[in-house]
Specification:
The chain is mainly β and 194 residues long. Helix content is 0%, strand content 46%. Strand 2 and strand 3 form a beta hairpin.
């Protein structure tokens, strides 16, 4: 495009796999394409090359967020707030991720159906009480299930689940999830929650 490389990879019959470059030649996306849009598995990177989104795209929009084990523990991420991702259906976060994150929020994700968080994620300390850390999942009308693994959010101060009319199950692990949380808010759910 205009004498600069915008894509490096394989391309045939409207489908491809490769790397998308920005105006400075930095890789901003690596993954699958179809009909000129991101489609399939891929990773989006910021200007420093750090992966900011990993998962599945459909028609150029992010649909599934996947973070592997031991992700984002270096202190560069202290808040994880997701909103406005109109096609996001599934969030899967592995074990021992986001160790320095003190604010976790999901809000207004209209197509989100499930959230799965592995063991020992979202916690700084194993045994110390803290007065910070909030987990907030609100206004997700199609969210059906939340699963949180053992020892995750151990030192968080609050959890709020609000306006989740399709929620059918909440599975919070054993061994200290939200051990020090004096605030637990659960409102706006349908009858018959399992």
């Amino acid at each position: 495009e205009n004498g600069r490389v915008v894509f490096v990879g394989e391309w045939k019959d409207g489908k491809g796999k490769g790397k998308e470059m920005d105006a400075k030649g930095r890789v901003v996306y690596e993954g699958e394409w179809r009909n000129g849009m991101r489609n399939g598995e891929g990773k989006e990177m910021d200007a420093s090359g750090r992966v900011v989104k990993s998962g599945k795209w459909v028609d150029g929009e992010y649909q599934e967020m996947i973070v592997g084990d031991n992700g984002y523990n270096d202190g560069s991420v202290t808040e994880l707030k997701l909103s406005g991702l109109v096609r996001l259906k599934r969030i899967v976060i592995g074990d021992e991720c986001f160790g320095k994150v003190r604010v976790f929020g999901l809000s207004g994700l209209g197509k989100l159906e499930s959230v799965v968080i592995g063991q020992e994620s979202f916690r700084i300390s194993r045994y110390k009480e803290r007065n910070d850390g909030s987990c907030r999942i609100v206004n997700c009308p199609k969210l059906k299930s939340i699963q949180i693994g053992d020892k995750s959010f151990r030192d968080y101060h609050s959890i709020e689940l609000n306006n989740l009319p399709s929620l059918q199950s909440i599975d919070i692990g054993d061994w200290g999830c939200f051990s020090y949380a004096p605030l637990f808010s659960l409102t706006g759910l349908i009858d018959g929650l399992v």
